[in-house]
Design goal:
Length: 487
């Protein structure tokens, strides 16, 4: 008989392998394997849901919405704060689950658990401050006001690279606003989502208010979630290509949509920058989660006058990165699949064929099929795949520039507009770049910036809407105008 606690959790009940619908754990006609990317071993066989179970989850969320929306903001806040506390208390176990199915180092996984929980705490407070308006009247026979009402059922599709935080960033504001949610996590990382449901139930989130449906037929599950008229809002984190398809499906019922899509982040180092600070920032934003984040540095632009010293110091830091299983004390774990590894080979081969140089790394790692060496390349140009595509892996691709106008133009020359980084000591340049870089998030002199108190999101083809900050809850409300005649 298989172990019910294969990861040796302190609380074995957090390890669930069935779908969570209307407060019940549901089996399915078949199961699929969840693999540890570091070892290739199967860690769980998870119930493989179909479109009928997705429909069941939507119906349960629709029924639960009728009651959940009636709770006061203070009542919803109290329940969410309990969920936050339970996640924080169980951070070690939740991190073990994440590392096993996703691969990131355990320290990073713990960090993600606390980061994701912070959104629950934030929106538990924010929902008590979301006021309507009293509008000054132009006619004494009328009074006018606005009322914020929850939109209804929210469909969420979340990715494998942040299997906990991408759920809480969506579910927390939805539940805080009075909505109910149906979540379809990535098939690669369903265990983190299911563990969150265990704690949500303990916190008192009622049956049907939160549902998780996972399966390998992403198209069928996604179509059900995006076309069912009972779903009022749809929110997605993933690639721009898939986001466009899902938006088109949502159009059939005119849903509200939020999209957090792909990126092609520039990282600009000016000649007056603190080079050590810039190198540290580059390492932080390039190699976190093995380079598999939407806001990872993608194109490194270094002023030609400091390119040699910057590259030398960056090489030293890259070669100091330790690689291994996430359960070991390492700084970088595996990529999520052998397909991702093959993509690193493709990008490097194209770069070398077109004149780029591999300074360090550049090959598959001896540790196993999902591991890749942290890599530094120089001589990269805008026309290479490394300069046009989202790398999503541990390749630092360095280019040079000569002037501010040149690098701003090159940085903006992309369909994406998620995050941009720059390092300079010139305060005038700080303000100029903040205004001229065409990105939803512009970050100066640091590589770490995301916070629950600030809006996260992009422009152009990097998405619609914001997560975090007071802006992050707005899309989960409808604003109702109320006019009262007095005579």
């Amino acid at each position: 008989m298989p172990s019910t606690n294969p990861l040796q959790l302190n609380d074995a009940s957090l390890f669930r392998t069935d779908n969570y619908v209307n407060g019940q754990w549901l089996e399915a006609d078949s199961r699929f394997e969840v693999l540890n990317p570091a070892t290739g071993e199967c860690i769980a066989a998870v119930a493989n849901a179909n479109a009928d179970q997705m429909k069941q989850a939507i119906d349960s969320a629709s029924k639960a919405f009728k009651q959940w929306r009636k709770n006061t903001a203070k009542q919803r806040s109290a329940v969410l704060k309990k969920w936050f506390a339970l996640i924080t208390e169980n951070a070690e176990d939740l991190a073990k689950i994440m590392t096993a199915e996703q691969g990131k180092p355990l320290s990073e996984a713990v960090g993600e658990i606390h980061y994701g929980a912070s959104y629950i705490e934030w929106f538990a407070e924010q929902c008590k401050r979301d006021y309507g308006d009293t509008i000054p009247t132009g006619d004494n026979s009328r009074r006018m006001q606005t009322i914020k009402t929850p939109v209804g059922v929210v469909g969420c599709v979340t990715p494998w690279n942040f299997p906990s935080a991408m759920i809480t960033r969506k579910a927390a504001p939805a539940l805080a606003a009075g909505c109910t949610v149906v979540i379809k996590p990535a098939a690669e990382t369903p265990l983190s989502a299911l563990a969150l449901c265990v704690l949500a139930e303990r916190a008192g989130i009622p049956a049907g208010a939160i549902n998780v449906v996972v399966g390998t037929d992403s198209e069928a599950l996604g179509v059900e979630l995006t076309t069912d008229p009972a779903v009022a809002k749809f929110t997605f984190t993933g690639s721009t290509r898939v986001g466009k398809l899902l938006m088109a499906q949502c159009a059939s019922t005119v849903k509200k949509v939020s999209m957090e899509l792909g990126g092609n982040a520039p990282f600009i180092v000016f000649d007056d920058a603190d080079i050590d600070q810039a190198v540290a920032g580059c390492i932080a934003t390039k190699f976190r989660n093995a380079g598999q984040t939407c806001v990872c540095t993608n194109r490194i632009f270094v002023h030609h006058s400091i390119a040699d010293i910057f590259t030398t110091k960056l090489q030293q830091q890259i070669e100091a990165l330790t690689v291994g299983s996430g359960t070991d004390e390492v700084l970088m774990g595996p990529l999520y699949s052998d397909k991702a590894v093959a993509n690193m080979d493709r990008l490097i081969a194209d770069g070398v064929a077109n004149g780029a140089t591999v300074v360090t790394g550049g090959q598959r790692h001896a540790l196993g099929q999902c591991f890749y060496q942290p890599t530094l390349m120089t001589g990269v140009t805008d026309t290479m795949h490394l300069g046009r595509e989202e790398i999503f892996g541990p390749i630092a691709a360095v280019q040079t520039f000569t002037s501010d106008d040149e690098v701003i133009e090159r940085a903006n020359d992309t369909e994406y507009g998620l995050a941009a980084y720059y390092f300079t000591a010139n305060v005038g340049r700080v303000f100029r770049l903040a205004e001229e870089l065409e990105y939803g998030m512009v970050i100066a002199n640091t590589g770490v910036f995301s916070s629950e108190v600030a809006p996260f999101g992009g422009v152009k083809q990097s998405g619609i809407g914001r997560e975090g900050g007071h802006q992050g809850i707005e899309d989960f409300y409808d604003v109702k105008y109320h006019c009262i005649g007095l005579d």
